[in-house]
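Thread: Newbie trying to understand structure tokens

Hi all, I'm a second-year student working on a class project, and my supervisor (Dr. K.) asked me to get a predicted structure for one chain before our next meeting. I've only ever worked with sequences, so writing a 3D structure as a token string is new to me. If someone could post the tokens and maybe explain what I'm looking at, I'd be very grateful. Here's the chain:
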Amino acid sequence: MSGQLYDEIGEAFEGFKTLPLARYAEVPGFLALVGDVNGRSVLDLASGTGFYSREFKRRGASHVLGVDISSAMVEAAQALEDGDPLGVHYEIGDVAELRTFEQPFDIAVAVQLFNYAEDVATIERMCRTIRRSIADGAEFFVFTQNPDYRFDGPSLAKYGFLCESLGEETEIGPRVRITALLDPPISFVANPPSREVLEKCLRAAGFSEVTWVPLEISAAGVREYGKEFWDDYGVNPPLTMLRCRA
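---
Reply by user tm_fold:
Sure, no problem. This is what the structure looks like when written as tokens:
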């Protein structure tokens, strides 16, 4: 399902990173969380059009592999690599059925990977294949919807996104509609995991030191829009991150 969903979006996905919330919170926040990748190998799961894969390679990663279930996403990422070769590798793959790699990676990252799993068992399988794919003691960094987000709060439209409850609870968590206010807008249904589900699956797969990290607005974002512009985000952040160790 998720592969088909993203096949329809393709290259337009790159535009997400221009929206205020992505530009001034997601991108600087997640890159700061991952930290120094110089000389290290990075496995980028749900890599999309390769935005973070390219950034890690530019920051000195020795080897970067982006894996995405959508062939259109991988094709778009490969086209960007062909136009500006950085040495990033991409492949189509389902993280729940991830192939075995000859060498374990030093770091794994996942941006919105878990939003489209069919059930809790699939999330746990994903976590197990990721644990198997990285070195003992390596860190895994996750960017995800905030499980504590309140849907009755102020609109996120001024930040470039909408996040609406569909009023349906699953074993994973509430189903939501996320809309990126591009031209034209891009909307998709997601099922981000609850805090309990994600923590349980990570620990069952052998991860420890599971730590949630708030996603804050960068200084550049405050300079660009002013502090008050971000107040609605600050009291009800729709996005968050976590880190854990293999």
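A couple of things are worth pointing out once you decode it. The longest helix spans residues 20-34. Confidence is low (pLDDT under 50) at residues 1-10. Feel free to ask follow-ups in this thread.
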